[in-house]
Amino acid sequence: MNIGAHISASGGVQNAPINATHYGAECYQFFSRSPQGGKAPNLDPNLIKEFKTNNKKYNLKNYYLHSPYYINLASAENRIYYGSISALKEELKRGKLLGAKGMMFHLGSAKDLGQTAAIKKVVKAIKEIIKDYQGGCQPLIEISAGAGLIIGDEFEEIAEIIKKSETAATKNLLGVCFDTAHAFESGYDLREEKAVQKTFSQFHKLIGLERLKVIHVNDSKTDLGSHSDRHEHLGYGKIGLAGFNALIKYFKTKKIPMDFIMETPTDEGILKDIKLLKKLRDTL
């Protein structure tokens, strides 16, 4: 069970493992390019070597890419739709070069087309992204909070998309990133032990725990079912410490290996969050 955070790669990807160590992270997530858009920086062999050397130096084996924010696989605008497909294909290649375990990505919004047509378009896009992919960096669908008709806020919806996107050749290629704030804001209770057990029982029934590769550990500024994507430091939001204690206990009891990555507000509070989660893990 590894505990870490989203880490800045400002100045180059080689800095990400150094920054991760500053926070005491045992695993981490980062952007290999600007999340807002633009051309991705070149990953030359020397840069890749330095990045991997730094990871080895600080004993960081599990790290992940997060795709850019502008991704929308349900956009009615071809420039955005095909640009999103191209960016995700490129990020998977970059992730493989860097040795990343996976790449989290959001599916997009149904506001242009409506839910049914949007899901069809998302499935078509994912099929295109993974059809010739040889693996190495696993594509991970991130659960959303459902704000603004964002797709992927229900387990049933994610299960449907995975089922329709994979073929015999790409079976079991897709994984899932479970965000605690997003799931809670989508209506999945995580505030105490029975609620955590119920939520992950539903997840396993519909999607399968074998698909779950990473958990974004974030408290929520807003209430259960609010559909408002607002992260908070652990214990200061509506999920509360009892919920995160139950979360750690659930995976520890079931002996399911998991990487816990925080995306709490980017200030020194993240140091406290990592120490807190480590304490919960180590005292159970």
Characterization of the model:
This protein has 284 residues and is α/β, with parallel strands linked by helices. It has a single domain (2-32, 43-283), classed as Divalent-metal-dependent TIM barrel enzymes (TIM Barrel, Alpha-Beta Barrel), CATH 3.20.20. It is 41% helix and 14% strand. It has helices at residues 16-22, 45-57, 78-98, 115-130, 155-165, 180-185, 193-206, 241-253, 269-283, and strands spanning 2-6, 28-30, 63-66, 102-105, 138-142, 175-179, 212-216, 219-220, 231-232, 259-262. The strands form two sheets. It has an eight-stranded parallel beta barrel. A two-stranded antiparallel ribbon has the order 8-9. Helix 4 (115-130) links the parallel strand 4 and strand 5 (138-142). Helix 3 packs parallel to helix 4 and helix 4 crosses helix 5 (155-165). It starts with a strand and ends with a helix. Its cofactor is Zn(2+). It holds the Pfam family AP_endonuc_2. It catalyses: Endonucleolytic cleavage to 5'-phosphooligonucleotide end-products. Zn(2+) 1 binds at residues 66, 106, 142.
Enumerate the spans where pLDDT stays under 50 for 5 or more consecutive residues.
Answer: none
How many structurally independent domains? 1
CATH homologous superfamily title: Divalent-metal-dependent TIM barrel enzymes
The whole-number mean of residue pLDDT values reads 94
Report the radius of gyration as a whole number of Å.
18 Å
- Which term fits the overall shape? globular
